[in-house]
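To assess whether ligand presence alters the predicted conformation, the chain was also submitted together with adenosine-5'-diphosphate. Input:
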Amino acid sequence: MAKTIAVLTSGGDAPGMNAAVRAVTRAALSRGIKVIGVRRGYNGLLNGDVFEMNLRSVSDILHKGGTVLYTARSPEFNTPEGVQKAADNCRKLGVDGVVVIGGDGSFRGARDLTGAGIPCIGVPGTIDNDISSSDYTIGFDTAMNTAMEMIDRIRDTAQSHDRCSVVEVMGRRCGDIALEVGIAIGATSILVPEVPYDLERDVIDRLQTNLKTGKKHFIVVVAEGIGGIDNIVREIEAQTGLETRGTVLGHVQRGGSPTLRDRVIASRMGYRAVELLEEGKSNRVVVMKDNHIVDYDITEALNMKKTFNTKLYQIAHEISI
Ligand code: ADP
């Protein structure tokens, strides 16, 4: 059983990470486990950028976006020497368990640190929902709601000018944000990296069909993983005659106060991570499967393949014309 644990956030930040940090801290302290906060991801373990946390260290953070522990990508940690140095520093601090809140890259680091003798537990935090082993990642709901609100605003102006708006949303190689946001805002077409598309068939023809039935303004939602929207904007304008504007929503989707869903799931996952360390488990990742919080071996989790919800994509396609 762990006596002193460290907690860190790593990779891209996500709203709800603070709720996870708070849950880890409070659950550990209530069990008599000492908690060390690590700043800026694995860099903090390498540089000794750490501090002891108490109950009040995590007050007033539940509703805040970003991460109070800061986050970073750490090229130095991503080497055998770096992992060894981080493990040695953990031993010096008496740390016998680490909770890593981040994405698949951060979990690879957690696997390596476990291999160097420091038991680690991963908690999925990223807005992109692109973690292979989990149906849900902390930050996804907040990012989708932000994107939805922003596109509602774009719709107001697209409607006033009889325009077509092409909006790129985040997600890296994952189309989940685009799919759900596309449904929520009534996009005429949704393009995602998981489904091959044909611009004529899947965008232009659909716009033309809608134009014939009297629709005058349109939103096309494009996932980041498609690789840019400039050409799509140009082609729509050239082929349909519609005035067409492109908007890349960008980092606005990463910020903001986490939604209820993100706060609750982050709290449950953070709590479970501490339970696992208390049970003497290591090299596990806490994930959401079929609405249950479960845990998998990190190595097995990293080998899992994410499935795209093609049924939901089909529904979106059918009801948007
Ligand atoms: P995410 O966790 O969001 O996927 P990254 O892929 O940037 O983000 O990973 C975050 C950090 O995790 C990296 O900067 C690095 O320190 C560590 N990391 C990533 N991949 C590995 C790996 N294969 N082995 C060890 N550490 C890794």
